[in-house]
Amino acid sequence: MDKNIAEAIGTFVLVFFGVGSAVLAGGGIGIADSISITGISLAFGISVIAMAYSIGQVSGAHLNPAVSLGALMAGRITVPTFIGYAVSQTIGAIVAAAAVYTIATNSAGGYDIATNGLGQNGWGAGYGGEFNVVGAFLFEVIATAIFLVVILGVTEERTGTPMFAGLVIGLTLTMIHLVGITVTGTSVNPARSIGPALFAGTTALGQLWLFIVAPLVGAAIGGLLHKAKITSPRVEEVASGPKA
Predict the structure, then answer these.
(1) Is residue 115 within a helix (H) or strand (E), and if so which, with residue range?
(2) What pTM, to 2 d.p., does this model score?
(3) Which letter does DSSP use for residue 176 in this model?
(4) Residue 235's pLDDT is what?
(5) DSSP 1-51
């Protein structure tokens, strides 16, 4: 399978099941209570785990332009690979959002996207915990940076845990969603934000810039921390083993 096709398919799965859990599961997994937040968080996390163990050997299963940027900053991939991945991931997310929208609007009771949205990210009055733009931006930067530190750490060739990498990454994304859904709906992924925003209306599109810029800033920080050996071991440390 071509790496770019793999990334498009993987991101489709992430957005279809992650966003779909909020939109299609209705009252069973809405955004109203802690049980709902847990269900949506698990849907995103399990989707990443599934893709990590199915297409990870093909493309690395980034499923996220921010993850690809972090890998670029850490020296794991080249600029052309980053561009190809980011474009493919965004296409996969848009197609997934379109599929969720089509299914939702073809139910017996109909679906009012103006009222219910499409699992889009946001902030401010009327959204989640009504955090302002500063809180939303800061959360997305910090959460994405931490996400990249984990991803780059568990996939490190010398000291990582490749057998469990997909599980650790998926659980980390679940953890991030458990906190972030009430803040921004949790992006940490520009492609995941772009897809639903295209169908959700002017407010979502007007706020979309934050969910592109903040995750990319956070990813760059995470990638640079890893490359600078601040969150990864130096070669001599690996050779000599852990210190007492």
Answers:
(1) helix 113-116
(2) 0.90
(3) H
(4) 54
(5) --HHHHHHHHHHHHHHHHHHHHHTSGGGG-SSSHHHHHHHHHHHHHHHHHH
Is 3-230 a domain of CATH 1.10.3370.10? Answer: no
Q: Is the pLDDT of residue 145 over 80?
A: yes
Q: List CB contacts of 156: < 8 A, sequence separation 6 or more.
A: 232, 233
C-alpha span between 244 and 107 (Å, rounded) = 61
Residue 50: how many CB atoms within 10 A of its CB? 17
58-79 pLDDT, tens digit each: 999 999 999 999 999 999 999 9
The whole-number average pLDDT for the span 148-159 is 89
**Tokens representing 161?**
């845990």
Q: Report residue 140 as tokens.
A: 């997305």
Domain boundaries, the chain: 3-230
The CA-CA-CA angle for residues 125, 142, 132, to 5°, reads 15
> Whole-angstrom Cα distance, residue 224 to residue 206?
30
Span 76-94, pLDDT tens digits: 999 999 999 999 999 999 9
The tokens of 65 are what? 């332009």
Q: Residue written as tokens 């992924």?
A: 189
Cα-to-chain-centroid distance, residue 155: 17
Q: What is the mean pLDDT of the chain?
A: 90
